[in-house]
Amino acid sequence: MKLMHLSDLHIGKRLNEFSLLDDQSYILDEILRIAKEQKPDAAAIAGDVYDKSAPSAEAVALFDSFISRLAQIVKPIFVISGNHDSAERIAFGSSLMQTSGVYFSPVYNGTAEPTKVKDEFGTVNVYMLPFIRPSDVRRFYPDDDTESFDSAFKAAVAHLDIDENERNVIIAHQFITGAAQGGSESVSVGGLDNIPAKVFAPFDYAALGHIHKKQNITSEHVRYCGTPLKYSLSEVNDEKTVTFAILGKKGELSIEEVPLRPLRDLREIKGTYIEITDRNFYDKFNREDYIHVTLTDENDIPEAIGRLRAVYPNIMKLGYDNKRTRENRLIEDISEEVRRYPSELFAEFYQTCNNSELSEEQKSYLDGIIKEIWK
Length: 375
Hints:
It contains 12 helices and 19 strands. By secondary structure, it is of the alpha/beta class. The chain folds into 3 domains: 2-259, Purple Acid Phosphatase, chain A, domain 2 (4-Layer Sandwich); 266-325, no CATH class; 340-374, no CATH class. The strands form 5 sheets. The chain has a 6-stranded mixed β-sheet. It has a 6-stranded mixed β-sheet with strand order 7-8-9-12-14-13, with no helix packed on it. A 3-stranded parallel β-sheet has the order 17-18-19. The termini are far apart.
């Protein structure tokens, strides 16, 4: 079975007050073109269909058009709700949609019945698990440990009826421990919403959403496909692709990626005002791209952003990198670290070194040492 894996469309998103609807419409057309070429057997959209729980009419119309056209190319299609979505809105009409081969995740009800997809090697069981919080699971399983995101998600998976002799796919939208963030995600402070990758051991493929940077977690079978567009300046160097997960017989999995080319890229440029307004400089790329400009002039350029917009109409941000700003930045960086409690800094260091968080016992021990030193 060849599964097209998408996630985090964030339809209706604005970046630095620029509406991205035109860019999203273009990239969704690109995805449809790729789907026609690749001929997948199924498609999954792993959450955050919209950027807001109450999307605009334009955003809803764009997704409606996309999913209708995608259904003419590939079926079945599986769509789950993410943390940016309203689970109730995504679930609306799901029973009726199933008759057309389009499956929208219901509001979490304590379980998830698999959809069976047949191929030459037998059955693939596809489970849809929308974004869940501990409180969502606790109401159905009050006797289980559901205090944390980790334990709650484990409890939710434990209550799925999984036949490990068959091939199983899960579509989920959570933050997996060790994932490298793209920069534009909404995650809990301190990694409280982390879930270990080992919880997906019963599945032959976990089609994940939530993290915007494409990556495998521990192995190919646990994967974030990433966003179709760059949604943060921290993603300027990321390559955006469509992921295809190809499941052969039990235990066989391969991943293919097809690059996505946007209508307008997101890029950073740096230099003096004279340098970056020289035609030999800006003719090397599309001036319609979304631009973050860093000027290296020692003196501020009067009305710089207005003058630069004549050259780069979609300039999003303007900053300076010179002797004055470097000194200010150094002072800000030092003062920020001084304000932070030592246990916070040590916890970050421990997470970086060990790819795991301090336990409660370790935190308590650390706090005791710090208090003793300060005495």
